[in-house]
Amino acid sequence: MTMLVNYVSKLSAEDKKKIGQWASEKRTESRKRKNHKNVVAKIEVIKRRKAI
Asked: Are 16 and 8 in contact (CB under 8 A)?
């Protein structure tokens, strides 16, 4: 962990910004994927209810 901290502290502000943007993109991607799964699951439940 300390190696990573040392590496990050040596980076320029520009690089840190890029890494931050990349990380936030990854977070939004995973959130969208999770939301999509939830929406699909809800649609499946509604279909089952109508079938009964």
From this structure: yes
Q: How far apart are CA 29 and CA 22, in angstroms?
A: 10
pLDDT band at 1 (very low <50, low <70, confident <90, very high): low
CA distances from 4 to 1, 26, 28 (A): 5, 19, 24
pLDDT at 4 over 80: no
Q: How many Cα atoms sit within 13 Å of 36 on the Cβ side?
A: 6
Give the separation between CA 42 and CA 4, rounded to whole angstroms: 41
- Residue 46 to residues 17, 35, 36: CA-CA distances in angstroms? 43, 17, 15
pTM, two decimals, is 0.49
